[in-house]
Amino acid sequence: GQNIDQPTEMTATEGAIVQINCTYQTSGFNGLFWYQQHAGEAPTFLSYNVLDGLEEKGRFSSFLSRSKGYSYLLLKELQMKDSASYLCAVREGTDKLIFGTGTRLQVFP
Amino acid sequence: DTAVSQTPKYLVTQMGNDKSIKCEQNLGHDTMYWYKQDSKKFLKIMFSYNNKELIINETVPNRFSPKSPDKAHLNLHINSLELGDSAVYFCASSQERGGAGNTIYFGEGSWLTVV
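Above: the input entities. Below: the structure tokens describing the complete assembly.
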């Protein structure tokens, strides 16, 4: 079966660091994606991991451990505009992207 | 230029009606998708086409019929609309199948409300 778990909501303060965790159980794992979705908008691509380890891209980093079925998204130097939902998604096979329910992050001043 | 564009953005219609949502991508991608996001914000794949060929059909009711006239277009037709069809429908596209470049790009969504 397919199961992707993320916390439903998180809060953090502007300038802080926040880590959003994602655990998954899927068949045919072929990469893990993180997307950002602001309210009323389309999801936009943030990061992609297919091998174990950390991928860094500016203020955002994503980590993957395939043996543990675990990933996290790390957001540094939080800004108010980072308030959004963050979607963890696992690709099965070549085409099928399975999304978690998303984590709604609220950044406060 | 919008990379993945879909129309209409908002659609309010009565139960039992038939409606279509159109999608076009100008990224030159080979694969296109329809995703449905429900009121709980859960995003779920419905269909995927690669070069006009259906490759994913996720047990969606047969009232939903995708059509891909060419690889740049993927339209979604819904017959006999039901209240439970109310959701945001996202069209998306990607270049490769399964490779590192297979990032999926989403359109802006079509908000469907069935009353």
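Note for the figure: Chain B touches chain A at residues 31, 40-45, 48, 50, 55-56, 90, 94, 97-98, 100, 102-109 (CB under 8 Å).
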